[in-house]
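$ ./design --mode recover --in tokens.txt
reading tokens...
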């Protein structure tokens, strides 16, 4: 499928949801590390804006804990990556729940990953017809799950995702072999824990085969 065909299917889901509620629509883009979540979320946001929707991309990466907390179970711990990376409660309260208040609002970020510093910025107001789009590896955990209006899962095999991730992160992680080890022992090991505990494909409203960025295929969630 053409990516825009996939985005149009999602847009139609959004329109249906908007007819049933009067508060911002919250969308989760989920998938294993390297499945293309961020690219998909950014492209979907741009597509919706081109169709005159008020669409906002809120990255879960803006809600990391500081390094000491993230690595408290060890720098190579998969369980630590799964459990300690993100300030889940703040994201749930300040984005997912706050966006449904009488006067909808959201907090764009709490942490700068590059500098590993917490940031303090005010919440931003939201139009009632806004669409909030978030990408992340663990967004179907119970703490988030009930708050999403539309859950999208990007299906990608681990081998393909690892190749993408290593290519993207090799320089940051100290070279090809170091990045390969990190994906195998921490990132994708954490994804396997998440998949076992949450069975994300069973939670998803829409499943997209995203093995080929240029030819995504909707395999669940097509509208008649």
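writing sequence...
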């Amino acid at each position: 499928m053409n990516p825009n065909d996939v985005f149009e299917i999602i847009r139609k889901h959004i329109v249906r949801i908007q007819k049933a509620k009067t508060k911002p629509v919250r969308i989760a883009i989920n998938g294993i590390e390297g499945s293309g979540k961020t690219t998909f979320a950014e492209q979907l946001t741009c597509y919706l804006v081109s169709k005159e929707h008020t669409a906002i991309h809120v990255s879960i990466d803006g809600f990391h804990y500081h390094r000491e907390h993230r690595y408290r179970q060890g720098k190579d711990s998969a369980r630590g990556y799964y459990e300690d990376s993100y300030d889940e409660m703040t994201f749930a309260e300040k984005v997912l729940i706050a966006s449904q208040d009488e006067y909808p609002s959201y907090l764009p970020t709490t942490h700068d990953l590059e500098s590993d510093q917490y940031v303090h910025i005010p919440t931003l107001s939201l139009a009632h017809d806004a669409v909030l789009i978030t990408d992340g590896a663990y967004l179907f955990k119970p703490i988030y799950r009930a708050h999403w209006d539309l859950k999208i899962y990007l299906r990608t095999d681990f081998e393909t995702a690892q190749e993408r991730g290593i290519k993207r992160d090799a320089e940051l992680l100290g070279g090809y072999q170091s990045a390969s080890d990190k994906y195998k022992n921490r990132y994708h090991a954490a994804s396997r824990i998440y998949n076992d505990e949450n069975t994300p494909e069973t939670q998803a409203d829409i499943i997209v085969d995203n093995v080929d960025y240029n030819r995504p295929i909707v395999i669940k969630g097509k509208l008649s």
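exit 0
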